[in-house]
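Lecture notes, part 5. Sequence design as translation. It can be helpful to think of inverse folding as translation between two languages: the language of shapes and the language of residues. The source text, in structure tokens, appears below.
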């Protein structure tokens, strides 16, 4: 390993390799603090050729590589699986915006660019990158694609893979696949870009991408609503969707418990409504039409929902600052829950119509097996993705509660399976959910995935131990 580190330093130059204990420590710990597996070293190539050279050296030595972007994974997908025996390859230095095609609405970008920087680059060119997640300030494009991140605009524009037109990928043997195509139609065999999107770095290292952009909305409007029941939430969603589906960019759900935690633990947070409700949604409408009257659309639908008893109260943002304040509440749900104590996170999805059954059955299960535990559910209800997080009872021992994590998640997964859903909607598998993946998918499906892995990475050096059990 020492010889390999010296060879890596020789080809990557100054700043290309970190191996001092203090320098590499942050690369071995995930955002949630669930794992602390320090790598042997961290390599930081400055270009695709450097990535390929580093991969070839590691492959020749049989040393495993863990690709890492902003290290914002919620399931331990970007940290080493074991301490001291793996190399983390950081894409942080590869942060160039290569080209923006305003006519074709495409963006070619390196993997180390943060999602927020990509959004701003598109905006500066008069275009819109329709991808938004809570960690966008630190999450990097390579990791966002590798995990097929979802986020707030999924119901309008799809997940990340739906925005990927082309990729550049370094394969486990060090070869470079240049698939940086800008084509909206390219029906020439297997669509390899979809293979690497969502593979969590287990098949190769994404070094650059061509992303599909959208026209910049001419106007947008946000509304924070209080509702009496989860059925009323779905009723409001259907009304907005049926009124103008193209204008419905986001429909974000927050349970009463989740918002209460945010108001208690986030400095400066306040309820946007005059009175509390059992459930809340944050709605955002946007349009590229010059004559689009979003305010009239929203007021019409809200009035109908109020008359039908599906709405308690609503506040429409009257300024950009107020719109951002609404979104700040939603985007800091995870931070508030982290401050409230130990939590067991369930990133699940079910058919939209099954969301009420999911929440009711999960609440009953928690009351029976984990009395006092707080179900702080929130998420992207328009696509059926609920972050069904469970916070320890107040005053309980955090370590003892966390020790029940696998058992609790399995009970949630049993409900999810019965409702025809998925135990991982947008966070992926990583290290945390391998045990569920091993039994969740059928034998044929797992076998096909393993055959793909073996064909592309026969030595199993690319992010080993993620998705699949070792």
């Amino acid at each position: 390993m020492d010889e390999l580190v010296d060879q890596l330093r020789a080809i990557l130059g100054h700043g290309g390799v970190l191996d001092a204990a203090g320098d590499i420590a942050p690369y071995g710990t995930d955002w949630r603090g669930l794992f602390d597996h320090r790598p042997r070293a961290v390599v930081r190539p400055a270009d695709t050729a450097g990535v390929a050279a580093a991969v070839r050296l590691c492959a020749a030595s049989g040393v495993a590589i863990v690709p890492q972007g902003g290290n914002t994974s919620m399931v331990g997908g970007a940290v080493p699986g074991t301490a001291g025996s793996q190399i983390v390859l950081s894409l942080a230095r590869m942060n160039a915006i290569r080209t923006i095609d305003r006519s074709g609405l495409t963006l070619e970008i390196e993997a180390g660019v943060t999602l927020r920087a990509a959004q701003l680059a598109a905006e500066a060119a008069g275009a819109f990158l329709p991808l938004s997640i809570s960690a966008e300030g630190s999450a990097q494009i390579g990791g966002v694609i590798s995990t097929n991140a979802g986020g707030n605009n999924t119901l309008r524009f799809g997940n990340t893979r739906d925005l990927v037109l082309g990729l550049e990928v370094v394969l486990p043997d060090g070869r470079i696949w240049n698939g940086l195509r800008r084509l909206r139609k390219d029906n020439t065999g297997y669509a390899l870009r979809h293979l690497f999107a969502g593979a969590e770095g287990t098949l190769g290292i994404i070094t650059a991408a061509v992303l599909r952009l959208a026209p910049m909305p001419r106007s947008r409007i946000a509304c924070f609503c209080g509702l009496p029941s989860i059925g009323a939430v779905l009723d409001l969603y259907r009304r907005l969707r049926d009124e103008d589906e193209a204008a419905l960019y986001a429909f974000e759900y927050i349970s009463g418990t989740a918002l209460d935690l945010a108001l208690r633990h986030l400095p400066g947070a306040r309820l946007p409504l005059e009175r509390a409700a059992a459930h809340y949604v944050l709605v955002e409408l946007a349009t590229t039409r010059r004559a689009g009257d979003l305010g009239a659309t929203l007021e019409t639908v809200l009035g109908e929902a109020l008359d039908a008893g599906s709405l308690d109260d609503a506040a429409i943002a009257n300024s950009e600052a107020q719109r951002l304040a609404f979104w700040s509440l939603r985007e800091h749900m995870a931070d508030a829950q982290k401050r409230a104590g130990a939590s067991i996170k369930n990133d699940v999805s079910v058919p939209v119509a099954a969301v009420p059954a999911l929440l009711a059955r999960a609440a009953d299960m928690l009351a029976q097996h984990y009395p006092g535990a707080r179900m702080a559910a929130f998420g992207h209800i328009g696509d059926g993705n609920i972050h069904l997080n469970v916070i320890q009872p107040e005053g309980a021992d955090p370590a003892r509660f966390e020790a029940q994590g696998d058992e609790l998640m399995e009970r949630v997964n049993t409900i999810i399976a019965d409702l025809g859903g998925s135990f991982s909607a947008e966070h992926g598998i990583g290290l945390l959910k391998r045990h569920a993946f091993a039994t969740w998918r059928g034998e044929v499906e797992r076998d096909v995935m393993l055959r793909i892995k073996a064909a592309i990475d026969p030595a199993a050096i690319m992010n080993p131990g993620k998705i699949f059990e070792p």
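The translated text above is only one of many valid answers, since several sequences can fold into similar shapes. The first helix runs from residue 2 to 12.
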